[in-house]
Design a protein that fits this description.
The complex is a heterodimer of chains A (297) and B (281). Chain A is mostly helical. Chain A contains twelve helices and two strands. The longest helix of chain A has 35 residues. Chain A starts with 12 loop residues before the first helix and ends with a helix. Chain B is mostly helical. In chain B, 75% of the residues lie in helices and 0% in strands. Chain B contains 13 helices and no strands. Chain B is globular. The C terminus of chain B is likely disordered. Classes of the chains: A mainly alpha (297), B mainly alpha (281). Chains A and B meet through helix 1, helix 3, helix 4, helix 5 and helix 7 of A and helix 1, helix 4, helix 5, helix 6 and helix 7 of B.
């Protein structure tokens, strides 16, 4: 019945082409257009005119302190938020993945934040962070602690952005870990217990190694998304105070569409793209090595 | 199971639950506050330290603000629904071709095409958004629902294709093969055999796409200003204009969040379906 592959016509092409065509038009073409913009000067007077600008935009990028600030902010948010989300998401999943009275309630509740509209979530946190009439500082003072500069301090504003990201996206890691833990054979826990392993030992030497692929996947998917962070920063601080919470996407948006310097905005955006690709490649290499050592351990 | 003292487990779960719920509680109570309750410093308990008032909701749903909210709400619904239906249809079609048939595009075979489509999800939206601004401007689709729909279809296609591909891999091919052997054309087999069994996958895909389109901010920020702007853009704009009118913006935020919560409750069976089924047996 099975016909050798090379003699079969590419019968599936017709099913794939609409999707591929749309992506070529609305993703690949704009992507190449952005790349072209990074080497151009743009004029919108009397229609769109591009003229060749050589490496001018790229030179400007590398000597622009605000670019390096927003790059640093983005990397800090990605590193801080993703590592916290992986630890907390895994920890919570460990607590509720086995039968537990009320477990279903917690499993549903813990998922909710990741579905919420980021702009509304950002607005919600803007109220919470309000330093004079918001509840967080009032609660701190009620237990005898000094109020904090959640969105006005030196370093705290960036940590506040991490806090919001952790609040919203720990659920994503939680869901993946829950599914991963559930896929482990039930006998695993009993076998480890019979061998006299304590709860901590079972976790460290049996469960954790088996969960490494899930944790890496979850961390990778979160990192790819976290690099794009903009919504909550846009509404909570607008990048401020100064540029202390400005992310790369926000910087590109301000340059491109507020200062209306589209070529330079495109250059910042493209730098973000390169960063994400480099991080992805590094991560894939790392995962391969981690998986290899896991097999040999 | 009896390794940890459950008191500690419940303690941690309770702390996290409070962390999840308190911000939402604050949002809900804020929508029932008036200027006095907001400006006199944080008020925590309705009827205890402030008097709740439905004014914000009344203004929003029946009064002066109805016109402001109505347009963006309609845009969000129309753009979300249309773009998700299209993404679902195109994604399902591509996934079917990739899962069941031979695909060959230049040097790329099935796995390469699937990888290329899915990997588009990695692209940061700002990379294409600035170029799309110029492109849509050139063809006159800036600040139109059509333009936003097209962009959202492309934005959701990687996800839709991936979800439907996973789905088709779990559906046995024997059904449609039987129909083909019986002399049905591929189109008839698709319509009468494949489509009916695919409904759960299509519904889940549609809901995921809708959620992402509904929540999307950056494309809408750059590609719409007025006529086609969606709810997230309304919230962002209102908040810069009116600063601290917490009650009204909280109510708007809750209207925006409501569909997202409903969809999550519908999808949570899909998200943790096996987990719940496994854990409660």
């Amino acid at each position: 019945m099975e016909i050798p592959a090379r003699r079969r016509a590419a019968e599936g092409n017709v099913y794939v082409l609409p999707a591929v065509g749309l992506l070529l038009l609305l993703t690949l073409f704009p992507f190449l257009f952005t790349l072209a913009l990074t080497f151009s000067r743009v004029s919108l007077v009397g229609g769109l005119h591009l003229s060749f600008a050589g490496l001018g935009n790229w030179y400007r990028l590398l000597t622009d302190p605000r670019f390096w600030t927003s790059l640093g902010n983005t990397v800090v948010v990605v590193a801080g938020a993703v590592s916290l989300e992986v630890m907390l998401g895994f920890g919570l999943a460990l607590l509720v993945h086995r039968p537990l009275p009320g477990g279903a309630f917690f499993r549903v509740l813990f998922i909710v934040p990741m579905a919420l509209t980021p702009i509304a979530v950002g607005y919600m946190w803007r109220m919470l962070f309000n330093e004079t009439i918001g509840p967080l500082n009032a609660l701190l003072q009620a237990i005898g602690l000094p109020p904090l500069g959640w969105v006005s301090g030196e370093r705290l504003p960036l940590l506040s952005m991490i806090l919001v990201d952790v609040w919203q996206w720990t659920p994503f890691v939680f869901v993946l870990c829950l599914a991963g833990l559930q896929a482990l054979p039930e006998e695993l826990w009993e076998a480890a217990q019979l061998d006299g392993a304590s709860g901590g030992q079972t976790l460290r030497y049996v469960v954790l190694p088996l969960m490494v692929p899930t944790l890496l996947t979850a961390g990778f998917l979160r990192a790819v998304e976290a690099f794009k962070i903009v919504d909550v920063i846009f509404i909570i601080t607008g990048g401020g105070p100064g540029t202390r919470t400005e992310s790369l996407t926000l910087h590109a948006y301000y340059r491109g569409l507020h200062a209306f310097d589209l070529a330079y905005g495109a250059t910042i955006a493209f730098a973000l793209f390169l960063l994400v690709v480099l991080a992805s490649l590094a991560f894939l290499r790392l995962t391969r090595r981690a998986r290899a050592t896991e097999v040999w351990a | 199971m009896k390794r940890r003292p459950p008191v500690l487990t419940y303690g941690i779960l309770a702390v996290w639950s409070v962390g999840v719920l308190f911000p939402l509680y604050w949002l809900v109570t804020a929508s029932f506050k008036d200027a006095l309750a907001v400006h006199q410093g944080p008020k925590f308990l309705p009827w205890v330290d402030f008097r709740p008032t439905p004014d914000a909701w009344r203004n929003l749903l029946l009064g002066v603000e109805r016109e402001t909210v109505y347009g963006p709400l309609l845009n969000s619904v129309v753009v979300g629904t249309t773009s998700s239906l299209l993404a679902m249809a195109l994604g399902a079609s591509a996934a079917y071709g990739l899962a069941r048939l031979r695909v060959r595009l230049g040097p790329m075979a099935n796995e390469d095409v699937l990888f290329w489509i899915v990997s588009q999800r990695i692209m940061p939206p700002i990379v294409t958004a600035l170029a799309l601004f110029l492109l849509l401007r050139t063809v006159g689709l800036l600040d139109t629902r059509t333009g936003l729909v097209l962009v959202y279809v492309a934005f959701n296609l990687p996800l839709a294709t991936w979800l439907m591909h996973n789905f088709f891999r779990q559906v046995p091919a024997s059904l449609e093969e039987a129909a083909l052997v019986d002399g049905a054309t591929r189109a008839r087999a698709l319509w009468h055999v494949v489509l009916p069994v695919s409904v759960p996958g299509l519904v889940a895909t549609f809901l995921f796409c809708f959620l992402f389109a509904w929540n999307e901010f950056l494309f809408a920020l750059i590609l719409t200003f007025n006529r086609a702007r969606t709810l997230p853009i309304l919230i962002a704009a209102q908040h810069t204009q009116r600063g601290i009118e917490w009650w009204s913006l909280s109510a708007m935020s809750l209207i925006t969040l409501l569909p997202a919560v409903l969809i999550t409750l519908l999808l949570q069976g899909y998200l943790v379906g096996r987990v719940l089924g496994g854990a409660e047996r």
